[in-house]
Amino acid sequence: MADDFKIAVICSSNQNRSMEAHSFLSKKGFNVKSFGTGNMVKLPGPAPDKPNVYDFSITYDAMYRDLMQKDYELYTQNGILHMLDRNRRIKAHPERFQDSTERFDLLITCEERVYDQVLEDFENKEKNDEQAVHIINIDIQDNHEEATIGAFMICELVTMLYASDDLDNEVDEILQEFEHKVKRSVLHTAQFY
Questions:
Q1: Element holding 107 (H helix, E strand)
Q2: Which UniProt keywords apply (predicted)?
Q3: What is the pTM of this model?
Q4: What percent of the chain has pLDDT over 70?
């Protein structure tokens, strides 16, 4: 369907929100990748002040096995093992946006802090100003239910943007229509590679 329209969905750890949207969009035929912007991958632990912290190079499968060994019941009950199982069926390991050299037509971030980190990354990279990219933020809480709702919203937005004949000139109107429809505000900026 949309092979020529390259999309990336970005959250902090490339675990929940970005991966749920990645899964949903790829099932709809979109050319999509997902990333995180954090320095480390953080997953809930046995207490709020005791998260499980991993490097971005670790595989989803290794995280799954580690948490299964640490406390199978806890991580089954809170949905983390289910989430990691989904993730390992999509790709091998989380990826950090700042380490990617790929170019996209559309970047969708799932929280304002991540949006700011993506913009900062663009400021720090050398540009040739030859390809525009639209960066859009939709705030999505980092829990399983919101990630699912967020994936539907992101898919709806991507479908609206993809259908545009002149995205650069119509993006603001499309975003206004989308905001009105989903009752959430979005942030938008255009950058260049």
A1: strand 106-109
A2: Hydrolase, mRNA processing, Nucleus, Protein phosphatase
A3: 0.95
A4: 98
